[in-house]
Design a protein that fits this description.
This protein is α/β, with parallel strands linked by helices. It has one domain: TIM Barrel, CATH 3.20.20.80. The chain is 33% helix and 19% strand. It has helices at residues 18-28, 43-53, 75-81, 83-86, 110-127, 138-144, 146-166, 178-181, and strands spanning 4-7, 31-35, 59-65, 89-95, 97-98, 103-104, 131-134, 171-173, 175-177, 211-215, 243-248. The relative contact order is 0.13.
């Protein structure tokens, strides 16, 4: 199971009212959880997953093809509709390309763009999700297919505005790969770690409500003791948004 953490980078000022302080403390508590990963999709295994998953935290995520937003029987609809039954917060993460190759699932032409936007708007209007992500590790796409990345930047801008129009409270975001973002290509990647190749500037290409990342420091460092103390806190040097880790390994 993949661990999820939503960390709100909030500050508290002395002298605020007690009620506001309580609210700030509550919002500052990280939300944790797991991804949708039942033993099987038989009814009993599926039910057992949800009963056990809520013991691990407050969030259950679904990750999959963006096109599944179109159907009311797909994974995004299922985890959103079951949230009130099992008392968790659903987090929907859609993908449109393969990270290992940088190949898009469908050409990002006008027809595909319209399909993606329409499906996102319909899903947001119907379900009013708390969290809705478009694109996973998109800085990998920037490296592998710059032309498709630029098309996605335009698509994301349209999707963000359209979803916000029908569901203003939904937290809309895209996801970056943290190690690549830092310019870390050594370790199991087989290259060299070079902060000069970091691409934090990509954060500014997207109007996201949170700064979301996947992170796998084990690909770079042999032991946890070798991970720098500021490995995660230095993200705050590059964004003012709340920070989320949607995959940790």
């Amino acid at each position: 199971m993949i661990i999820l953490v939503i960390v709100a980078l909030l500050t508290t000022c002395i002298g605020q009212e007690d009620s506001h302080l309580a609210e700030t403390r509550r919002e500052s508590i990280p939300l944790k959880g797991v991804s949708l990963s039942p033993k099987s999709f038989r009814a009993d295994d599926f039910t057992e997953f949800f009963e056990k998953a809520v013991l691990a935290g407050e969030i259950i995520s679904w990750t999959g093809d963006w096109i599944e937003l179109e159907t009311d029987r797909g994974g995004p609809a299922v985890i959103t509709d079951l949230a009130s039954t099992y008392h968790y917060t659903p987090l929907v993460l859609t993908q449109f390309f393969t990270q290992s190759t940088g190949r898009v699932a469908r050409p990002l032409n006008e027809a595909t763009t319209q399909t993606y936007v329409t499906s996102a708007v319909t899903f947001a209007r119907t379900h009013s999700p708390e969290y809705l992500g478009f694109g996973i590790e998109v800085n990998v796409l920037y490296q592998k297919s710059p032309a498709d990345f630029e098309k996605f930047v335009t698509l994301y801008r349209e999707v963000y505005d359209a979803v916000k129009e029908v569901s203003p409270s939904t937290v809309v975001f895209t996801v970056f790969q943290l190690e690549k973002m830092k310019g870390l290509n050594g370790g199991l990647y087989g290259g060299a770690n070079d902060p000069e190749t970091a691409h934090w500037f990509l954060l500014d290409r997207f109007a996201s409500d949170i700064a979301a990342f996947t992170t796998y420091p084990g690909l770079i460092y042999e032991t946890p003791s070798k991970i720098p103390a500021d490995y995660y806190t230095d993200i705050q040097q590059h964004t003012q948004n709340p920070i989320a880790f949607v995959e940790i390994g």
